[in-house]
Specification:
Layout: E1 3-7, E2 12-17, E3 20-23, H1 36-53, E4 61-68, H2 74-84, E5 93-97, E6 107-114
């Protein structure tokens, strides 16, 4: 059975199937005009909250895809990421530059995790 969380007309924020949690792309909602550090903290907070709602945590991340509007932001984003990621549990990760749907967004994160 597929379990969906925060279901909207266009997408669900998360789905769980077979013990695997799939998150939709998470973006800055509170202040989309904030800098990369603030947007990264907010986005990773969304990831952590959704994983918790689905019965997991950042220690159970299986993979993460990070999309940056400007790859020049990678160093500043990595400072926030390194402070956030669970020690000893850094997941496989891809980081690429991409045109994001809202030009104010500087980062979007997609994650999959095992249910704890």
């Amino acid at each position: 059975m597929i379990e969906r969380h925060h279901v909207g007309a266009r997408l669900s924020e998360a789905s769980v199937y077979g013990g695997i949690i799939h998150l939709a792309g998470q973006v800055a909602e509170r202040d989309p005009d904030a800098g990369i550090e603030a947007q990264t903290r907010e986005v990773l907070g969304h990831v952590e909250r959704l994983l918790g709602e689905c019965g997991s945590s950042k220690a159970n991340l299986l993979s993460v895809q990070i999309f940056l509007a400007d790859i020049a932001d990678i160093a500043a984003m990595n400072v926030v990421w390194d402070a956030w990621v669970a020690p000893g549990s850094a997941p496989p990760r891809a980081t690429v530059q991409a045109a994001l749907a809202d030009p104010r967004w500087r980062i979007e994160v997609v994650a999959t995790a095992a249910r704890a």
